[in-house]
């Protein structure tokens, strides 16, 4: 085999792989993907089976520890998450400092990084501290998310409850109010829990690679998690399900049923695309989309679930799945198409969609951080570049520059 490091040292040879689509940056035992066959497995377990039989907290444990928990371990983990769910009371002042209308992802990234100041980490990490940090992040990200939403609508904060399970607890903090009756719908709780499971890890995507990159410098883990949140924020990553709803809103506002939009998306002179269709890795089907579609159909068929956007979405799906343009290019609905609809049906405001993605992805990020921490050798991420700039130039004094 060619020793690339030696070759590079001897010849200055550097491979160019923009976006690292063809470069393995690490070895990992967490998530397996086969894009052609539509396979996604966490620690060897098929995503379909986990989504059907498991719950998010159990999947988080699986990702973090490598094995499904025994009953007693699951209870211990859930209890630890509940005990870690409150954020330091002084952090509440921070929420008041953000301007009205701040994007909740900006708030989330800032607040998660600031956990490092309230929960300092010793230089030498023992396993008990490591487990407590993980519990803090998995649990507190949900509290911060709900608090940032409450602040954005000017309602009093609802604290986490010791009695409620993870996802129910989150939805309660989001939607309960001292001035309003609020009853959680079981199907919505299940759909959001499934959303979290399906987003919990996806190997070396942009945000996870950012977590590994920041983590490889041995930076504080709260800052490392915040780096993941920042990378996820972008519309080309975590923001895609928000764009699905924005597309549906646009079609509705224009008074169309979707046919015209589909024609536009097929037109090579136009820049518009059918959002929620196609995937960089899954070229036949997105296994997460298949699972979520069933849950989505169940929710949207419930009585009282009327929304013109849902009708447009169904129509787009119907037309695209029969259209040669989409069939020949293997463009199928991806996870974002259905997750956008589910989150809307659950009453989650559009600007919180990526925040929910971050809650789901936190165990995956931390599993990668731990895997890296315990690897035999941690190499700091330091890609090279092909320099295409000027050769040596002489400095000119300012009055001599033409
Ligand atoms: N609508 C219309 N045409 C599309 C779409 C779409 N959504 N997606 C791809 N195409 C077309 C392209 O125009 C291209 O056509 P051509 O061969 O005639 O030039 C062909 O399909 C291949 O497109 P690529 O961009 O090369 O496909 P790629 O695999 O690189 O892109 C991507 C995947 C970025 C997801 C793309 O399908 C897309 O933009 N989809 C819409 C946005 C979206 O839903 N993103 C979420 C992805 S899922 C996730 O991130 C969790």
Comma- or semicolon-separated keywords:
402 residues; mainly alpha; three-stranded antiparallel β-sheet; 3 strands; binds acetyl coenzyme *A; acyltransferase; Citrate_synthase_typ-I; Citrate_synthase_sf; transferase
Task: Provide an overview of this structure.
By secondary structure, the chain is mainly α. It contains 18 helices and 3 strands. The protein has helices at 4-11, 47-53, 56-65, 71-83, 92-97, 104-118, 127-152, 166-175, 186-198, 206-215, 221-232, 240-253, 259-266, 287-300, 308-322, 324-328, 335-345, 353-373, and strands at residues 31-34, 39-42, 45-46. A 3-stranded antiparallel beta sheet has the order 1-2-3. β2 and β3 form a beta hairpin. α6 runs antiparallel to α7 and α9 crosses α18 (353-373). The chain is globular and about 70 Å long. The structure holds acetyl coenzyme *A. Residues 240, 265, 273-280, 329, 331, 334-336 line the site of acetyl coenzyme *A (ACO). The active site is at residues 279, 336.
